[in-house]
Design goal:
Elements (H helix, E strand, L loop, with lengths): L70 H14 L2 H16 L3 H4 L2 H15 L5 H14 L3 E6 L8 H5 L5 H18 L5 E4 L6 H8 L6 H17 L2 E4 L4 H18 L7 E6 L5 H15 L3 E6 L16 H17 L22 E6 L3 H17 L5 E7 L4 H15 L10 E7 L2 H16 L2 H20 L2
Parallel strand pairs: 1-2, 1-8, 2-3, 3-4, 4-5, 5-6, 6-7, 7-8
Helix pairs in contact: 1-16, 2-15, 4-15, 7-9, 12-13
């Protein structure tokens, strides 16, 4: 019997595929004039394609990025993203989460049925677990998919609703700070060596929150606790991301964070990172000012760059008028830091003076759900790898349960890099995930729901991508 062999040639898989940019937190808003409207765009760098077909395994089409998700995660993500993409379903879900997060009713807070439903749905989608063993299982699952690891955060925090809620309620500072320190030290212990842990100063209690609101230096209790956390993180090789919070306290958080950066970010490596929200009009000037301080004082600035997560509570006039302006701010800041060159978005003339020549040392955590922003960053890195330009320390991050396509594409590109040129880069990709009891995580879950409400376009894009992968697996389409 003759065997008929069909030979097929496949086009080499691209390491990075363009995709429609995910919508971030903004509604489509009426455009206003802005200095960022004229900001330069990234220089596009073409990636050469082999002129003849290859018989190597890399020549065959890669599986879609979302093929990295196991089926239970894929199905749960599709169902929750479908709810997030529907105003009719998201609105009641958000109301229920908000009620549970702010209720003092024992019937609601201790209701086992509600606890079970939440833990199996929204909590499981966005949170690592209630116990160390659950956290370790979540981290192992993400590593199995190909993520470098997790950015682990302890969920306890205070979100400002009314100023009097903090001022009028008394609390024991020593007890609150000790509980916060203990939870954060456990977070650092659970994080991987060379990984990341995140912390929020608001988690240290109402006395600490008053200090933040009043722009006071940290009390000796808070300062000592934070120093212990930094020393433990240093001993374990874990980097610390000091998270951004609401603008009412962010200036004070920046000041506190810089003090610890001055102490621990030496020798070109950042142990402590500050978080900068690109949706704030002030962020380019703030980063420029902090870079100038780092240059003058000889420390490395650790930057975690995000678009922003407090639009529901931050004053609207402090935020860029349109999503496009926020995108240009984010991309312009990222390009400046990656290239270590000032540009029209990140301009030291804004607030910094007395600068030394050159560009300050910087480490960057690029935390983005926007595929276009990530593509621009990886294009710059590929260009720098080919030309031999020195590159800054860079990692990518996305929230667990969101933007899986972005993270999975980065993992896929890293697998191509493993079999490619020695100069190619394997992106270091992490998932940001909180841990704590269901009750402790409720305020975090409310913010995730609010973010999806303010970014329906992105939620719909994610739903469509997840639905396409489900159909591929179930129906072969």
């Amino acid at each position: 019997m003759k065997t008929i062999t069909r030979l097929s040639q496949a086009t080499p898989a691209q390491c990075l595929r363009s995709s429609n940019p995910s919508r971030q937190f903004h509604h489509s808003l009426r455009a206003r004039s802005s200095p960022l409207a004229e900001a330069p765009t990234f220089r596009e760098t073409s990636i050469p394609t082999p002129s003849r077909p290859s018989t190597s395994p890399s020549a065959f089409p890669s599986p879609p990025p979302l093929s990295l998700l196991n089926f239970p995660t894929l199905l749960r993500s599709y169902l929750i993203t479908t709810a997030s993409a529907s105003p009719l379903l998201l609105a009641p879900s958000l109301r229920i989460l908000s009620l549970l997060a702010h209720s003092s009713s024992p019937w609601l807070r201790d209701n086992r049925v509600l606890h079970y439903i939440l833990k199996k749905t929204f909590y499981r989608q966005f949170c690592a677990g209630e116990t160390p063993s659950e956290v370790q299982l979540t981290a192992a699952d993400l590593k199995e998919m190909g993520f470098q690891g997790i950015i682990l955060a302890y969920a306890k925090e205070i979100v400002l609703e009314k100023k009097t809620a903090v001022e009028d309620e008394k609390s024991d500072e020593a007890e609150d700070v000790e509980a916060w320190k203990k939870g954060t030290l456990e977070t650092v212990r659970l994080a991987d060596r060379d990984g990341y842990a995140a912390l929020k100063f608001s988690g240290a209690g109402r006395s600490t929150m008053r200090q933040l609101i009043e722009s006071s230096p940290p009390s000796s209790t808070v300062s000592q606790a934070t120093t212990e956390i930094c020393e433990y993180a240093k001993s374990r090789g874990v980097r610390l991301l000091f998270d951004a919070e609401q603008t009412a306290i962010q200036d004070t958080i920046d000041k506190w964070t810089l003090e610890f950066q001055r102490k621990y970010n030496r020798g070109g490596v950042a142990l402590v990172y500050g978080t900068y929200q690109a949706y704030l009009r002030s962020s380019p000037a703030t980063i420029a000012e902090h870079l100038a301080m780092a240059q003058q004082e000889g420390f490395t600035l650790g930057v975690k760059l995000v678009r922003g997560a407090y639009m529901a509570s931050d004053p609207r006039h402090l935020i860029w008028a349109t999503k496009g302006e926020t995108d240009r701010a984010f991309d312009g800041i990222a390009e400046s830091l990656l290239r270590r060159q000032w540009n029209r978005v990140l301009n030291p003339a804004a607030r910094a003076s007395g600068r030394s020549p050159g560009f300050p040392a910087v480490n960057l955590m690029l935390a983005s759900h926007n595929s276009e922003s990530v593509r621009k960053a990886t294009t710059i890195r590929l260009e720098q790898a080919r030309t031999g330009v020195e590159r800054i320390r860079l990692a990518y991050g996305q929230l667990m349960g969101m933007a899986d396509e972005v993270g999975c594409e980065l993992i896929m590109s890293g697998r191509h890099a493993d079999g490619g040129a020695a100069s190619a880069e394997k992106p270091q990709t992490y998932k940001y995930v909180v841990w704590g009891t269901v009750q402790e995580c409720l305020k975090y879950l409310v913010r995730r729901a609010e973010e999806n409400r303010d970014a329906l376009g992105r939620a719909r894009h994610d739903r469509n991508a997840l639905g396409k992968e489900l159909r591929r697996r179930l129906l072969g389409l």
